[in-house]
Every structure is written in C-alpha cells, then in structure tokens.
Amino acid sequence: MYSRHFSLREAPFSITPDSAFFFPHEGAQAALNMLLVALRSGEGFLKIVGEVGCGKTVLCRQLLKTLQGECVTAYIPNPDMGPDDLLMALTHELGVDVAPPVSRHKVFNALRDCLLKHAEAGRHVVVCIDEAQAIPLRTVESLRLLSNLETEKKKLLQLVLLGQPELDEKLSRPEIRQLLQRITFSEYLGPMMAHRVPAYLAHRLATAALSDVTDTRVFEADAAQSIARFSGGVPRLVNVLAHKCLMLAYGENEHRVKVRHVRMAASETPGVRAPVPWWVSSWLGWKGVWRSTRPGATKAAVKQFQDEHPGGSR
Ligand SMILES: Nc1ncnc2c1ncn2[C@@H]1O[C@H](COP(=O)(O)OP(=O)(O)OP(=O)(O)O)[C@@H](O)[C@H]1O
Ligand SMILES: [Mg+2]
C-alpha cells in the first residue's frame, strides 16, 4: 500500500519469518553461532527456547540457509503429530521412498539405511523441529529412538528443537527425561535489546528498498526508541507497530515516522507495553489522555488519504 510512497520494493515489516530480513542482533547471533558450532562439531541434540515472536522460526530458516550445501537438512514446521506420522514426515523430508504396505518397522529401517548412506559419504544430517513445545509426549519417545541411531563414532542424525518456554516444561517430565539428558547445548532467545531496535528498523527498510537512494531513516530517533519501549524489543511486535506507523505516516502524506504515530499505532495494538510506569498510564487513561486514539485509526487515516489523493502514491 505504502511501498511506492517510501520507495520500497516490498513490505518491510511483514510478520512472515523471511530469512532475507534476518538481523543478527546479539541474542539471535549468539543462538545461530551456538547452533553452527555445535552442529559442525557433530553434537546430536540441540535446543533453542524463546518467547513468542522473538524469532525462533526465522533463526531456524537462517540456519537452514547457512547449512545449505554443507549438510543434508530437513525441516518439520509443525510436529503436533503421532510417532508414525513424524517418522513419515522425516522420510518425506529426506527424500526416502517407502514402498507400501508401510509399517513403523519398515519406515524406521528405511530411515536408518538413508542415514547410514549419508554418514558413509561424510554428510551430516540435520533435522530442525520448530514449534517443538507441541510435540506430543508419545512422539518425543520416537525422537529418543532416532537419537539412538549412531555409528561407533558419531550420531547419524543431529536434531535441533526450537520451541516456546513450554518446551522446557515438557522436557522436564520424568517420563522423557532421557531425552533431556541427550541435549548437549541449548540457548535462550529473548527480545532484542532496546538500543538495537533503530538498527533493526533501518535494516529491514534497507532490505526492502527499491534502490540505493531509498531513505532508510524513515523512523525519527525518538520514534524508534518509542517502538523499542512499546514492543519490549519483541521483533514481531516491532514489526506490527512499524507497519502501522508507516501506514499512518503515509495516510498523512508524511515521509517521517514520529512519536505520535507510534503512540497511535500502539493504542490499537494488543499486547504492547505502556512505555511509562503503570500508575502514570492509568492516571493518563483516567484523564482520557492515554490511548485516546479511537480503534481503527490507522486504517481510517489511510483511507482518508487515499480518498483525497485518488490515483496517488500507493
Ligand atoms: N533476528 C531477526 N531478524 C529479522 N527479523 C526477525 C528477527 N527475529 C524475529 N524477526 C521477525 O519477527 C517476526 C516473528 O519472528 P518468528 O516468527 O521467527 O518468531 P517465533 O519466535 O518463531 O514466534 P512463535 O513463538 O509465535 O513461533 C517475523 O516477522 C520475523 O521475521
Ligand atoms: Mg515460530
């Protein structure tokens, strides 16, 4: 909608986890480094736990991109399935054919043969399981069996689990603690530090830029800081706020995002934090100052602008 207005090729703040936009803030870079070092040194089981919207999926995609050509990789985006389905999903991802009639035993053997072949050729096989907090307990057990596949010297399969904090709760259950013991490295992925948010915004704008002359300083310094405070540094919330701010600025035919745009965007975004102590915001709310923007203000502002500028900048 506002792409042409800001000289952009595509939407810079989409909430799809596109690795082309990956920004290596400290936490994300540390997690990626840990994964790369551990996988390259043959570690079997690794884990990334992170809060909602902090970038686990985009990190996973960046990892898979980095390992391209170096390892055989498989990606299971949604492991909420029974043990047989998980084995089938793995065989499918690794390009293994199992002739019908299919049985668990047959699938397991086919998988083992495929992994042995890769091991003989000196190729690491890395399987990334996203949303790992959703793996049913009985399926976790078949992961443990897979982790038993090894030669005398090394694992046949390296497994990366990525999930929300409930994953840790699940792994601490007594019936699956054997799996927990196999996890040799893990990292926590939290929100970005506030001082990295301005660079994050500029990075995403530069990635979506139409050309070198596109201005990536669209967010005024205090507006970027305000986004950092409202979002708590959670990248998904940063994206949601930034996108609304661009809509609002576009709606006013402005080329700069200001603090007032951030306030308006925040007022209609669930889950953002007030950047002032609670007692100040409740007092302001009581006085009718805080969150005074009516719901849907972003869309209304854009519509008004488009009505006033038919055929104008889209
Ligand atoms: N390091 C990063 N660089 C660039 N964009 C990021 C980064 N981290 C997160 N994002 C962006 O934030 C949004 C949320 O990221 P993502 O979907 O990866 O989070 P998640 O932790 O997998 O969330 P969930 O817990 O809901 O699965 C996406 O648009 C993603 O592109
Ligand atoms: Mg995710």
Q: Quick one: overall form?
A: elongated
Distance between the termini: 5 Å
CATH architecture group name of the largest domain = 3-Layer(aba) Sandwich
Please tally the β strands and state the result: 5
Largest sheet: 5 strands, parallel
Major sheet: arrangement of strands? 2-3-4-1-5
The top-level CATH class of the largest domain is Alpha Beta
User: How much of the polypeptide forms β-strand, as a percent range?
Assistant: 5-15%
Q: Identify the CATH homologous superfamily of the largest domain.
A: P-loop containing nucleotide triphosphate hydrolases
Q: Provide the domain count.
A: 2
| Arithmetic mean pLDDT | 88
The CATH topology of the largest domain corresponds to Rossmann fold
Based on CA atoms alone, the radius of gyration comes out at 23 Å
Uncertain ranges: 288-295
Ligand inventory: adenosine-5'-triphosphate, magnesium ion
Q: Note the run of SSEs as H and E.
A: HEHEHHEHEHHEHHHHHH
Structural class: alpha/beta
Number of helices: 13
